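Appendix B. Raw example, untouched.
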Amino acid sequence: MSRFSPANLNNPDIVRTIELNRLLKLVRPHAKYFDGRGLTLPSTGTATAIDIDLLAEIIESPDDNAPQELLNALGYIDAMATPAGMDALLPAAIAAGMPFDSGLDQTPADIAVQVWLFDPTIVEDQHAWFTWKPPRRADCFQPAAGVQKRLLALTPDHINRGQADISN
């Protein structure tokens, strides 16, 4: 089972910034799991409160019964619940037609959940670009036009020296 170490969603103060009905819509499909961990989820739409501290604790320390779909969603959302992640998600989600009220003061965690609920593939795609590390670059230079250098002969000595240089 995959595990993740949440950097954002284990903080109750950050989880509280997610609009409650959105948060419930995210976790509600896994209500049986949360019940087993001691957290009864209220119905969506009628909820006025939830034990955010307990929810954050459950997110921080999933057990062996944690549904893989929940772990995947929380992992992607947690990784993108940063200002830079929000900046990557918003243009892609709006371009895909996600309704967005720019008049509301929304946090990165709330945006990440909104986009996940709208279309998880947007979060997955942006996460791939957001976390992608470019390979190391090797600069190669050609001699000036018309300048021809004599190539080194491939002798065992030159090969051994080259291998030693690369190893170092």
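End of appendix B.
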